[in-house]
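C-alpha cells as discussed.
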C-alpha cells in the first residue's frame, strides 16, 4: 500500500468519524428541542427555556457543520481518486 493510499484511507476514516460525530451532536440538539416541546414543565425544572434553547441551537449548529465538513472531505477525496484514475 502506497503512502498516498494510506493517507487517503486515513482521511476517509476521519471524514466518516467527523460526519458520525456531527450526526451524534445534532441528534442531542434535536432531543433537547423535542424534550422542551413535549414536556416543557419538566424541562423548566432543570433548565430554563433560554438555556435549553441556546444549548439545542449550539448543538445543532456544531452537528450540522461537522456533518457538512465530513461530507465535503469525502467529496474532495473522491475528486482526487477520480483524477488519479484518469492519469
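Sequence:
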Amino acid at each position: 500500500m502506497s503512502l498516498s493510499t494510506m493517507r487517503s484511507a486515513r482521511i476517509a476514516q476521519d471524514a466518516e468519524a467527523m460526519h458520525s460525530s456531527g450526526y451524534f451532536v445534532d441528534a442531542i440538539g434535536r432531543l433537547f428541542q423535542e424534550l422542551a416541546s413535549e414536556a416543557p414543565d419538566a424541562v423548566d425544572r432543570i433548565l430554563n427555556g433560554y438555556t435549553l434553547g441556546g444549548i439545542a441551537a449550539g448543538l445543532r449548529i456544531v452537528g450540522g457543520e461537522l456533518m457538512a465538513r465530513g461530507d465535503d472531505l469525502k467529496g474532495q477525496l473522491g475528486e482526487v481518486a477520480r483524477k488519479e484514475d484518469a492519469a
